[in-house]
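Dig into these lines:

——
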Amino acid sequence: METKNQAFFRTFNEAFVKGDIEKILASVTDDIVWRMVGSDTINGIEALTQALTGMDNDSDFELEIEYMITHGKEAAVNGMIHSTNSDGEQKHYSFCDIYRLNKHKDGKIKEIISYVLEVH
C-alpha cells in the first residue's frame, strides 16, 4: 500500500511522461530548483515552465518505477523511461530523482536532483 507521499511522487512522475505541464507546475514551489546532473540547472517556476514547453512531445513515453523511498520532506524515485518516437525508434533511460519538499504534510517540491543515463 502506497503512502500519501509515494502516491504524490508516482503521480508527479507520471505527469512528466504524459507531458502534463499543468500537474507538474501545480506540484512545485515558485522557487523550484531542478538540477540535472551533468547538464542544466533550472531555477524558478518560470524557467521550469519554459523548459517543459520545449520538451520532446513527438515521442510516446512509458514509465517504469523500480523504487520509491520517502521520509519526511525527502524522497527518492528511480526506474526506467522508455520512449518511442514517431519513426518507431526506441530509447531507454535509467533515472534516479532526489526530491525535497517545502513541508512534510501536503508539501510541494522545492528541489529536484536528477541523474539520467541512456541505456542500450
About this structure: The radius of gyration is 14 Å.
